[in-house]
Amino acid sequence: MSAPARVEDLLRECAPQVLGALARRYGRFGACEDAVQEALLAAAVQWPDEGVPANPRGWLVTVASRRLVDLTRSEEARRRREETVAAMPVPDEPPPAEDDTLTLLFLCCHPELSAASQVALTLRAVGGLTTAEIARAFLVPEATMAQRISRAKQRIKASGARFRMPPEPEQADRLRVVLHVLYLIFNEGYTASSGPDLQRNDLTAEAIRLTRAVHALLPGEGEVAGLLALMLLTDARRPARTGADGALIPLAEQDRARWHTESIVEGVALVSESLARSELGPYQLQAAIAAVHAEAPSMAATDWPQILVLYRILERISPNPTVTLNSAVAVAMVEGPRAGLAVLDTLTGSLPEHHRLDATRAHLLEMAGETGAARRHYERAARATASIPERRYLEGRLRALGN
């Protein structure tokens, strides 16, 4: 790994801890977040040339604290706070040993924020990504992403939220939101909703890194382990999902020898342990389904009856249209394509204009030998998707069916 890459990894690791130290000391999450971003930028410029300081986290806390004082002084309207903050000495003592990553995640995933804002703020404050990096990941102008992050911080301030763990009765619900945000980040990286690339590896890597951090802090939470296992088992297929030209390769045609063995081993171990000792949850079940796929030597040799059983349990404890859509393929593989199509019929109106419903229906119609209907749905799916690799794949299926 190159020196700049090592520095980048170190800064991402330190970012939530430094922000936690400042927010705990000064409050004012928004101003602290701005100050930490400036300190991270300064380190990114200086450290590769001058070397990493002996105490990188302490260096960042000191620089960020000075930036916070400077920022406060520069705001005329905040003169009163300047007197308060500027009077505080820059801390010489080592930063607190406690890890505030989980507290930060709970704050960034505050229920007052929209899902888009939760994702953006999490990547910025906890992931340590710059606004430009987040904007590039979601294909929006940097100014738009800056406004989104700024509004999120203003909303947190207006809500009166403090930098501390939510009360015990709220923690389970807030953890579910945190896991959902991490899941959204991973999904956007695994199958980008738009643009020229099928995958955005920086987002999947960041989602796995953050989920791994949450798992280290909450090793007894079965759903945290389940989500980490799901991410690892799904991401293990990444090397085989695209060809040299970036074209999408469906699961049935992937070279499974290219799947990442270490991720599969770790994911299977995680989900096996969590299923044995924790209350069953939707992430654990999805990870169990991914594990069955990961351990199958081929599409034909996959244990589809077991996958169908797992989907039926998942639909019972966490019913939603996406689960039903995915289960239709398992039903088709076990009971035939007509049975799978009957499952899709139950989704009428539930997934309006979602291209995956048309794509799945086209696939099952093709299995059933109804090529004319399959062509119509492949065509509709290709028109609806904003992902260029997905569109090219669907157009390829359309051509393969002929006129």
What is the strand content? under 5%
- The largest beta-sheet arranges its strands as 1-2
- Please count the helical segments: 20
Q: Determine Rg (CA atoms, Å).
A: 24 Å
**Helix content, binned percent:** over 70%
Order of helices and strands: HHHHHHHHHEHHHHHHHHHHEH
Give the CA-CA distance, first to last residue. Answer: 52 Å
Give an account of the 3D structure:
Helix 7 crosses helix 8 and helix 17 runs antiparallel to helix 18 (355-367). The protein has a two-stranded parallel sheet. With 403 residues, the chain is mainly α. The model has no long low-confidence stretch (mean pLDDT 87). It contains 20 helices and two strands. The longest helix is centred in the N-terminal third of the chain and has 24 residues, at 3-26. Among the domains are: 3-75, no CATH class; 303-402, Serine Threonine Protein Phosphatase 5, Tetratricopeptide repeat (Alpha Horseshoe), CATH 1.25.40.10. The chain has helices at 3-26, 29-50, 56-73, 79-87, 101-108, 115-126, 131-137, 142-159, 168-190, 201-217, 222-235, 238-241, 261-277, 282-295, 304-317, 321-335, 337-345, 355-367, 371-384, 388-400, and strands at residues 194-195, 386-387.
